[in-house]
Design a protein that fits this description.
Elements (H helix, E strand, L loop, with lengths): L4 H5 L2 E2 L23 E6 L11 E3 L5 E8 L4 E7 L3 E7 L2 E5 L6 E5 L4 E4 L5 E5 L5 E8 L7 E3 L1 H9 L2 E3 L5 E3 L18 H4 L7 H8 E2 L1 H7 L5 E5 L4 E2 L4 E7 L14 E7 L2 E5 L2 E5 L4 E4 L6 E4 L6 E7 L8 H5 L1
Parallel strand pairs: 2-3, 16-17
Antiparallel strand pairs: 1-22, 2-4, 4-11, 5-10, 5-12, 6-9, 6-11, 7-8, 7-10, 9-15, 13-14, 16-18, 18-24, 19-22, 19-24, 20-21, 20-23
Length: about 325
């Protein structure tokens, strides 16, 4: 396979070119959550807003997105049907989970990665002092068909003018919008349904689902650190594998894979070369390398250099917490 520089650039989403949506989810008007910015980088993600810009529509078996938030801004409690993995690009973040967000929590620093179990309510907030950014990997081409919100989130949103329809679309009553004929409001989960959502503690979750950046850097000095996968540090089959590469663990020569590969630098600038062409990837950039393309990676500057490499697998898009815990 061959690609021109122009064709490759269409497969790269630069950090500085990301287009945010501030009305992506039902809590967009709720105080404490109303300053969020949502980004859909590869695939449509789980946004509930028609205003969401999708940078690359073709999906490789998973979706890539991001959330940007100022200090003390939080993302409300919700659950996913498929895998949701975050790594911190900028800032310091607190992740919490459970019906009311009190079952457990963990704080992540830059480069740390969290493979959040499906089937539990989760939320997160920027607890740093500056605008923060977390990058997300969502399992499946359709990212599981949306999110499931904790009942209090839907009720709070309604008080601030946003109604989520059963069709998964948002309607802003402050703008005079109403549900279309035949579309009912998204039903709130009842107590029986809520009992199906586990309440694992931090001791249940953190050792099996969180990997610390500096531990991964130490492991990746001579070979890529296998972060998420069936034989990785975080053993799981979410529909994709995740590795961390450093200056010492990049392939020594050009390589080709029959899988889709997404490159996401964390630190340093990386030179990507193929077919006699070269481009540079910076932290926050996302590059979708197609199967069959011979390419090579080289850090372009001295100092710390690391990137996450995500490849699609034939596994389903994420196991439930119950299956994982068993």
């Amino acid at each position: 396979m061959t690609l021109t520089l122009k064709e490759m650039e269409r497969r790269i989403v630069r950090y500085g070119e990301l287009q945010p949506c501030k009305t992506a989810f039902i809590d967009a008007h709720t105080p404490g959550s109303n300053q969020k910015e949502n980004f859909t980088i590869i695939g449509g993600g789980v946004s509930e807003s028609p205003d969401q810009h999708v940078h690359i529509k073709e999906t490789p078996g998973f979706n890539i997105g991001a959330a940007g938030q100022p200090p003390r801004c939080r993302n409300s409690l919700h659950s996913h049907r498929t895998a949701e993995v975050f790594f911190v690009l900028k800032g310091r973040w607190r992740f919490f989970w459970g019906r009311y967000g009190t079952a457990g929590e963990v704080v992540l620093e830059e480069g740390d990665i969290f493979n959040i179990p499906t089937g539990i309510f989760r939320g997160f907030e920027n607890i740093g002092t500056d605008y923060g950014m977390i990058m997300a990997i969502l399992g499946g081409d359709d990212a599981g068909g949306g999110v499931i919100w904790a009942p209090q989130v839907i009720e709070d949103a309604r008080d601030h003018g946003l109604v989520l329809g059963e069709n998964g679309k948002l309607y802003d009553t402050k703008k005079g919008q109403t549900l279309p004929v035949g579309v009912r409001p998204m039903p709130v989960l009842n107590e029986t349904e809520l009992k199906a959502f586990p309440e694992p503690t931090a001791q249940d979750v953190v050792p099996h689902y969180v990997a610390r950046y500096w531990d991964l850097m130490a492991l990746a000095q001579k070979a890529p650190a296998k972060v998420i996968g069936s034989d990785a540090i975080l053993k799981d089959k979410p529909g994709f594998d995740v590795e961390l590469l450093t200056r010492g663990s990049i392939p020594e020569s050009a390589y080709t894979t029959d899988r889709h590969e997404v490159l996401m630098p964390v630190h340093g600038h990386w030179r990507l070369s193929w077919d006699g062409s070269t481009t540079v990837l910076a932290p926050g950039d996302t590059c979708a390398v197609p199967p069959g393309l011979s390419h090579s990676l080289t850090p372009s500057m001295t100092g710390e250099a690391s990137l996450y490499r995500i490849t699609n697998t034939d596994d389903p898009a994420g196991a439930t917490w119950t299956a994982r815990a068993a």
